[in-house]
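Protein modeling request. Please complete all fields; requests missing the sequence field cannot be processed.
Requester role: graduate student
Desired output: 3D structure, token encoding
Chains: 1
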Amino acid sequence: MIKISKIDCAVILAGGKGTRLRPLTTNKPKPLVQVALIPMIDFALKQIHDTGIKKIVIAVKYLGDQIRDYVSETYSSDDLEIIIPDMDPIGTADAVRQVTDLIQGDFIVSMADIVTNLPLQKMIDFFVTTDSYATISLKNIDFPTKKFGVILLDNDQNIEIFLEKPKPEEMLFTTLAFAYRPVAEFHQNLVNTGVYIFKHRVLEILDSFKDINDFGQDLFPYLLQEKFKINGYVDDYYWMDCGNVRSYLWANWDVLRGFVEGINPPGKNVNGIWRGENVTISPTAKVIPPVVFGNDVRIEDNVTIGPYSVIADGVVVKENSVIDHSVIWRNSEIGSDSFIEKSVICDEVKIENKGKVINYSVVD
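Delivered output (364 residues):
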């Protein structure tokens, strides 16, 4: 049952270039890169709409017209208003600043290029019980790395320190400053997963301080410096930022293996094999689940597909080839006697006969 949210607007940030994911994002905006045949922006749109929110603003920049076209062709509903304004933001906070006139109350900010099943309604319920200016989604990770930064929470989930990418001297100073505070706890294994809920009055701060352009680098440090309360919402859920080819492949595998509760590939699922329309598989081919096939796929004689492979619309895999732990994008052709393992083949690529692509490679 869908709950009615106390938040009536969300902003989805969809303007990044996805530089670390190139060449997958050379001609395609990262929010439209598919994971298990689902464009990543769909995860954010569905997650927000499921809370009962009726108004979503999408902030675009890089290849923004592709996102506009996709959303206009895919989403048409009387109970959901999606606005994609013309804009040229220079950062995450600046993107929100540029759509201030479209936001009437407290609001959510989400990212269009992550894979997550964050319990957004629970996060909203937590936010409305606080008097915080902002609530940040957080998640424990098993292997902390310095790129995720350091967060200091008190026992009431208030954030006291937020260091997005701390330098060694910042780590030392912070450790010394808070070493003897019994109510505070360091969390170097907490990652900011990129979903925020803000009080409407945060927009006044963005309007007043034009040099605040980024949430992590500018806004959150400013709020803490000025003693405005920020909460951290910590929960157990799936999250992957797909920042490189390896993590992109892992996100596909995780969806196929059922690690992402609530997110399933499209098509009819029979014993871990999802099939779209007009899928032709030779009787001599072998499909090892989990595998997902899009529409209009042809798999020829003695081909082996899987496990953990995604075959998009219009793909042809010719005889005696092997596709293992790989993602093949739309309208590509894999020549006969080819071997594709742990790699990505982009749209409309032709792999010649006896081709070999392995070890987290990309062919575009």
